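Objective 1b. Sequence-to-structure analysis of Bacteriophage Gp15 protein.
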Amino acid sequence: MQYPQKDLYATGDDDMEWREFITLLSGIMPETPLGQIIKIRAEDDDDILEHFTSEQHRIRNEWRNRQLQETMKQMSKEEVMMQMKAMFKSMAS
């Protein structure tokens, strides 16, 4: 896979800078497989979520769980407990 004058698989001195990678990634069209995954992960509209397939729900839930785990790693025990308490409180109301 080539980008004009850039070998995306190159290693060493020709490594791609993060900013360049992000620029290329932001240009990915929604119709591509990666674009579809990004769209599924980012969806928050209840009407659209209601019509998701089980596979789309699986993709979204796996992403949300991974994000939650990363957030929890960065929080103190007290912060985690406060978040859990708030979550259960909102579920009960």
